[in-house]
Amino acid sequence: TYVVTENCIQCKYTDCAVVCPVDCFHEGPNFLAIDPDECIDCDACVPECPAEAIFPEAELPPGQEKFLELNAELAKNWPVINVKKDALPDADKWNGAEGKLQYLKK
Ligand code: SF4
Ligand code: F3S
């Protein structure tokens, strides 16, 4: 499966959700999560993310491993998103900021 990692938090550009052929993105207040049971590993979402927040599970950057479980858990509780929405208001400011996990709203 592919995994949305920390840099999505507070950005939520949503460009990823539009291109997913199997609608496996789920939307929370300030993060999107991929349903690992639906993702077909097509790679289409990776280049779309302005925050470069999406990785195959085998290539998660150091410190981002916990997002594998987190995506699975959050995707269960959140509705599907398959359209482009406005990014969060300060997305460009938050893009690349350290330590965003503490701001994740579930
Ligand atoms: Fe969807 Fe493909 Fe990205 Fe998986 S890799 S989340 S199937 S666009
Ligand atoms: Fe998040 Fe990037 Fe998608 S910031 S909403 S993973 S386009």
Automatic annotation (TrEMBL):
Keywords: 3Fe-4S, 4Fe-4S, Electron transport, Iron, Iron-sulfur, Metal-binding, Repeat, Transport. The keyword Metal-binding applies. InterPro entries: 4Fe4S_Fe-S-bd, 4Fe4S_Fe_S_CS, 7Fe_ferredoxin, Fd_C, FdxA, RnfB_subfamily. GO terms for molecular function: 3 iron, 4 sulfur cluster binding; 4 iron, 4 sulfur cluster binding; electron transfer activity; metal ion binding. Its cofactor is [4Fe-4S] cluster; [3Fe-4S] cluster. Residues 1-29, 30-59 form the 4Fe-4S ferredoxin-type domain. Gene3D superfamilies: 3.30.70.20. Pfam families: DUF3470 (PF11953), Fer4 (PF00037). Ferredoxins are iron-sulfur proteins that transfer electrons in a wide variety of metabolic reactions. This is Ferredoxin. It comes from Sulfurimicrobium lacus. The lineage of its organism: Bacteria, Pseudomonadati, Pseudomonadota, Betaproteobacteria, Nitrosomonadales.
